């Protein structure tokens, strides 16, 4: 990065670190933080969408759909989430390849599962064997996003389901008295009012989602955990111009501090939104604000 | 090979008894059930011990956090913030590498780099922080009348805590604490995926489940088996904690008893 970095062996401690922390692999390390942020930015809305669909299904009047929604919530919440992460990455991949295989190679007669192998025709492979590196990485990343969205969608569905039931029943009865149909009541009365009740649960979920991002590592994405392990490991002068001992502890300490700061900032931010939303509401929170305000 | 033979060979594989080599090919359903079940020994070991030790430490932390003295309050607040504000996964990694470095300083820290001790300590500290926050919340919502009654009886200090505050705190915290317990058992699956090595392939349930999934490239058998085991564990926890909940609330008229509301599973 800097001009004096040509021969790191001769540098003093401070300059050595300034070179070490700005070399190529460290840039990849810093980029992986963006990956985490991108994951959060994409997953949060998608999971909210899954959650909304799940909650809608769970309170459907047609029993099988309601079972489907409730089953989705119950199963994902009852099993260790990390098991789901490991499961979905393979399962989704195989589901995509299987579908493509059926569509693209109908003449193929061999069974797909041969003993311990999962064989599809080469045209159905995802991503295609010939595609460049970035396609592989993007594919892995989008599998991770879908997996996160499925798991967190179930949590969000549970929160929204509870919020929908928290809306005062009199409101819905009034809507019925005005002659609104079931659908109109849902979209015009229930949905606009439920967000205040959902916010505490959703902000809790956001904190949990932040703390779940290191699990990206288990899904095979080169995320911050991957780089921290790579960069921290002992390096000899044979392979790098910046030899050092086992520094993984310090790298993970840095990640720890990063997450602490991130959750703290989110906490403050969500607190502000909550204060805004409760302003003027007929809840105990709104009441407290009214009393605290100068007359 | 009969299923009974398989159970004999692999039933205690996760703690090092029985057949040394894991099955390599042609996995039967029985083998998968047995090995994953054998791995559950570790999940239960981590969960039970961390919960047991964490319970007492959490009580101390909660009392410290609600203390009026800064000397007690600040360290407890920081401890709870540190462990609740960062991912358990990163905590495991950090603890493992910390112990690895300490091992270089003094051989006394050798056992700490093994999962049975190092991961247990991490889990213990982590669950203490989460439980302490629950207990702290309960301490703050103890009915004022209860403490006033204790004052009226001339109780103070230790007897007041032991006979009035602590039981009421537990009673109020119990539903949330049940969730924390379920949640902790789920978190034990992270141990062998976060630095701590599975020495001689002695791992927990998820370790074996992912072993089978990797070998057969078929996730649709081992993971449902794992889910089956965890649902059983969850039901057992709910049952046991429900009994304790009943006892804690036994003096109350039945309408005022706190119902257990099970809302498990959040990632930490």
Automatic annotation (TrEMBL), chain A:
A GO-annotated cellular component: plasma membrane
GO terms under biological process: transmembrane transport
Chief location bin: membrane
TM regions (residue ranges): 36-60, 72-92, 139-164, 185-209, 249-270
Matches recorded under Pfam families: BPD_transp_1
Residue span, ABC transmembrane type-1 domain: 33-270
UniProt keyword Nucleus, yes or no: no
Keywords: Membrane, Transmembrane, Transmembrane helix, Transport
InterPro entries on file: ABC_transp_permease_HisMQ, MetI-like, MetI-like_sf
Subcellular compartments: Cell membrane
Keyword Membrane: yes
Membrane topology reported for the UniProt record: Multi-pass membrane protein
Family as reported in the entry's similarity comment: Belongs to the binding-protein-dependent transport system permease family.
Protein name: ABC transporter permease
